[in-house]
């Protein structure tokens, strides 16, 4: 199993899970019907999760415009690369935009190192 995933896909699944968590929290409010303040807290948390997810989806949209569309050398599909190193959305092939990193072992920390540069 490969530990890394394409960043955009990863954020998208995070946003999707936030929606589910939000609904589960709001559903949980039903069990506290006798305590109105608990219902209010649960409902607020649930709404916050769903709002957060909406925000994350908007953020993905913003990131997608900054991502570079490349053809994956592994599966020849077009995938979006975010940052210096990223994985192919389809086959998890490690991809890099920096020629100096080509052939190097894939390492998530390569992204963090470049963060301060740009
Ligand atoms: Zn691929």
UniProtKB/TrEMBL annotation:
Keywords: Cell membrane, Membrane, Transmembrane, Transmembrane helix. The chain crosses the membrane at residues 12-32, 38-60. Residues 98-118 are annotated as: Disordered. InterPro entries: UPF0295. It comes from the Bacteria. This is YgzB family protein.
